[in-house]
From TrEMBL:
Coiled coil: none annotated. Pfam families: FMO-like. The keyword NADP applies. Its cofactor is FAD. This is NAD(P)/FAD-dependent oxidoreductase. It comes from Streptomyces malaysiensis. Belongs to the FAD-binding monooxygenase family. GO terms for molecular function: flavin adenine dinucleotide binding; N,N-dimethylaniline monooxygenase activity; NADP binding. Keywords: FAD, Flavoprotein, Monooxygenase, NADP, Oxidoreductase.
């Protein structure tokens, strides 16, 4: 495989998941072909390539979980599984001619800003290159988080994370311990329950679970969506609109979530008859504070006689004995961790060194922040896709990605307008003002007031979610406001912007 040494590109995109492929398509549509997509693995797909655990599927409706510019009329189910989503991304790569731009096995080892040359020096597993602009689309669900459990190294059986499923391990008849109760665990538990001998779920915090309104999409519907695209667009629009209307309860009126809690409670009672088990599975925080999970078979699986729920996290491992924080002991042959990802401490941040000689991780030690969720101060011509405070609690992240891609496209247009070797660096004051606005809006959301400790929070601040509708986010990222940036050129330092700054001061407060 050829290396990358001495190559220079206009744009280097990191990651070939939804964000990276979307960026590549947007670049080509803007007439930019001088770019590469650096991917550490050997195929596209991102999280949908890496997560191959039994039962893996999306919890967002299929017709909303796809690019607006690449609709798929042939989704097989309301909530499609991992193989179909990965196949969709492969088709996107082929349809839009992205293959020549893909560089597999090119894990980014370091990014360093060269102020004199006004470009990024990029070191990868396949060699080095330089780039005028870097777009980081590594995603928040890329690197699994494994807890440091005393004695785990001495466990004699198989141990793996849900995002790195070991398909060589035969679970039939085995004593299996599932650690965690997040979105992956509630799919894994019912998928493996019937084949294992004994299943023990270590539950540090119970989750709110609602019914999953899933069904097969009929051939007639798929034919209609193919032949009459307006029906496909209508379906997507309805799905989007319903979720936009739900946002107010999450962000402004958390008390309204009590009705949803009653629905979730009824859903549990239909499947779980044991009062003690129901008590263990009932959360003590407001629904929505943590991600609401969707499943029709999670509770029935937990009610099976060979399934035990330990209402505590895993504290220690002693040989084949697993000890919960409440002292409960369970024997296991296999341990599966569904313990989430490095979301607020993204690994790529440790590899990016900006204009001040500090890494992004150092700049973010007090919490992630970036102007309009995209550009951090001190890191010129560096953009993040699914950056700080761009996550959603109830809708499709593809909507966020497309909003940020619009911002990326205007960013590049501004560079072209300025002309020559030039960079934009977000002003610290602009980043602070934007962050303060977001955090002020976050104060009354269910994520901050709901009484839970979630992965949304970092040092007590919610640095992951967007406290508004996707319509508002699109408005925030519609165009680049040069008043919020310093303009940099080789050796000369900042220069005064000469391009119109129309739209300065916009914001949805």
């Amino acid at each position: 495989m050829a290396g990358l040494t001495h190559e220079h590109v206009r744009v280097a995109v990191i990651g070939a998941g939804f964000g990276g492929l979307g960026a590549a398509v947007r670049l080509r549509r803007a007439g930019i072909t001088d770019f590469v997509v650096l991917e550490r693995a050997d195929a596209v797909g991102g999280a949908w390539r890496d997560n191959t655990y039994p039962g893996c599927a999306c919890d967002v409706p299929s017709h909303l979980y796809s690019f607006s510019f690449a609709p798929n009329p042939d989704w097989p189910r309301n909530f499609s599984g991992q193989p179909h989503i990965r196949a969709y991304l492969e088709r996107v790569a082929d349809t839009f001619g992205l293959r020549p731009h893909l560089r597999f096995g090119a894990e980014v080892r370091s990014l360093r800003w060269d102020s004199g040359a006004v470009h990024w020096e990029v070191e990868t597993a396949r060699g080095s290159l330089t780039a005028d602009v870097v777009v980081s689309a590594t995603g928040p669900l890329a690197d699994p988080r494994m807890p440091d459990i005393p004695g785990l190294d001495g466990f004699p059986g198989a141990v793996f994370h849900s995002a790195r499923w070991d398909h060589t391990v035969d679970l039939r008849g085995k004593r299996v311990a599932m650690i965690g109760t997040g979105a992956s665990a509630i799919q894994i538990v019912p998928a493996i329950e019937r084949e294992v001998g004994q299943l023990t779920l270590f539950q540090r915090t119970p989750a709110w679970v609602l019914p999953r309104m899933d069904r097969r999409i009929s051939g007639v519907e798929r034919w209609l969506h193919t032949k009459v695209p307006a029906t496909r667009a209508l379906r997507r629009g309805v799905l989007w609109g319903i979720r936009e209307l739900q946002v107010g309860a999450f962000t402004k009126r958390p008390g309204e979530m009590r009705f949803v809690e009653r629905l979730a409670g009824a859903h549990m009672r239909r499947a779980v008859k044991d009062p003690a088990l129901r008590a263990a599975l009932t959360p003590d925080y407001r629904i929505g504070c943590k991600r609401i999970l969707l499943s029709n078979d999670y509770y029935p699986a937990l009610a099976q006689p060979h399934v035990d729920v330990v209402p505590a996290g895993l504290k220690e491992v002693r040989g084949t004995t697993l000890v919960g924080a409440d002292g409960t002991e369970a024997e296991a042959d296999v341990i599966i961790f569904g313990t989430g990802f490095h979301v607020t401490d993204v690994p790529i941040a440790h590899r990016v060194t900006g204009a001040r000689g500090t890494t992004l991780a150092e700049e973010w030690k007090g919490g992630m922040e970036a102007l309009r969720g995209t550009t951090p101060a001190g890191f010129p011509n560096f953009l993040t896709i699914i950056g700080p405070n761009t996550g959603l609690g109830n809708s499709s992240m593809i909507l966020v990605i497309e909003a940020q891609l619009a911002y990326m496209a205007d960013y590049l247009r501004q560079l072209d307008t300025l002309g020559g070797k030039v960079a934009l660096d977000a002003r610290p004051s602009a980043v602070r003002a934007y962050t303060d606005m977001v955090q002020e809006r976050m104060r009354r959301t269910v994520w901050n007031t709901g009484g839970c400790d979630s992965w949304y929070l970092d040092n007590g601040r919610n640095t992951t979610l967007w406290p508004g509708t996707t319509t508002e986010l699109r408005r925030e990222t519609r165009r680049v406001d040069l008043a919020e940036y310093r303009v940099l050129r080789p050796h000369t330092g900042p220069v005064k912007a000469t391009v119109s700054t129309a739209g300065a001061g916009r914001g949805s407060r």
